[in-house]
Amino acid sequence: MRCVFVGVEYAGKTTLINLLTEYYKQRAQRVHVDDHFTIPDSTLSAESRELMLGFPNDVKERMQRMQLQYHVEVIRNYAHTMISGWHIEEAIYSEVYGEDEDSPYYPRYAYSHQRLYEAQVLESRLPDVVVIHVTASAETIRGRMQADAHEYQIIKEGDIERLQGRFAEEVDRSLFTNKGRTIHLDTTDKTPSESLDELLLLSEPLITAGELALRAMDVPATEHEVRYENGVRKLIPTSGG
Q1: What are the structural domains of the chain?
Q2: What's phi and psi for 100, nearest 5 deg?
Q3: CB-CB contact of 130 with 1 (8 Å)
Q4: Smallest Cα–Cα separation from 136: which of 75, 186, 77?
Q5: How many Cα atoms within 13 Å fall on the side-chain side of residue 190?
Q6: Which of 116, 117, 108, 55 has its CA nearest to residue 83?
Q7: What is the pLDDT of residue 240?
Q8: Which of 91, 153, 215, 227 is at 20 to 30 A from 6, Cα to Cα?
Q9: Can you give the pLDDT at residue 118?
Q10: pTM, rounded to two decimals
């Protein structure tokens, strides 16, 4: 399943990506994860992240634009893709915080590109692209902010409701939503495991027969390896499990 996770910071996107990534790995599937669209890029070194904060706005915008376009190809090329934020996050955060001197974001320059990225993906006629709009109540998000604040937090507490509204608007405008490729998942009062189960259930009508068969596999709870016996594929627990 090719997944694009969108939603307000602290809604639970990264937690779900980590759980779903592990889910696929347990089934011996290669996963491609890109959770680095929020400025500064979380995959950079600590030194580079600090430097990125001070880049001129046009440099930041150019860097983001290039990687937004690049990830059209990522979605096309990897069967199990986990992308967090992507073009919708960029559109909203650059709009809300682009003129804020305390924010690392830049003014929104080219909003019209948002539908272009989606059109390029949809033109590929991939059968299993799913946009997951992850939400949580404003109270839940505030609680998570206080309990485990991000090192480079983007959102401000007073903006939560406004941001929730903007994400809902952008998801509604999305071509993926128009094509019935969007699901909505509220993580309020749910454990991470419960949210993963709900994600798998809600996405079931949008997946391929091969994905459905993958989900039906009986996977050992311990460490295991793949073997074939008389042509039958089996997952065998290893001694180290």
Answers
A1: 2-207 (3.40.50.300)
A2: -85, 115
A3: yes
A4: 186
A5: 20
A6: 117
A7: 58
A8: 215
A9: 95
A10: 0.92
User: Mind giving me the DSSP string for 38-78?
Assistant: SSSPTTS-HHHHHHHHTS-HHHHHHHHHHHHHHHHHHHHH-
Rounded-to-10 torsion of CA 138, 144, 197, 7:
50
pLDDT digit string (tens) for the chain, length 241 residues = 999 999 999 999 999 999 999 999 988 899 999 998 999 998 899 999 999 999 999 999 999 999 999 999 999 999 999 999 999 999 999 999 999 999 999 998 777 788 999 999 999 999 899 999 999 999 999 999 999 999 999 999 999 999 999 999 999 999 999 999 999 999 999 999 999 999 999 999 999 999 999 999 888 878 888 889 999 888 888 865 4
- Residue 136 is encoded by which pair of tokens? 């949580």
The letter for the amino acid at 217 is: M
For the chain, give the longest Cα–Cα distance. Answer: 66
Single out the residue of 82, 24, 33, 83 nearest to residue 215, CA to CA. Answer: 24
SS (H, E, C) 129-192: EEEEEEECCHHHHHHHHHHCCCCCCCCCHHHHHHHHHHHHHHHHHCHHHHCCCEEEEECCCCCH
The residue assigned the tokens 């001129």 is: 56
Residues 174 and 181: their CA atoms lie apart, in Å, by: 10
Contact of 104 with 40, CB cutoff 8 Å? yes
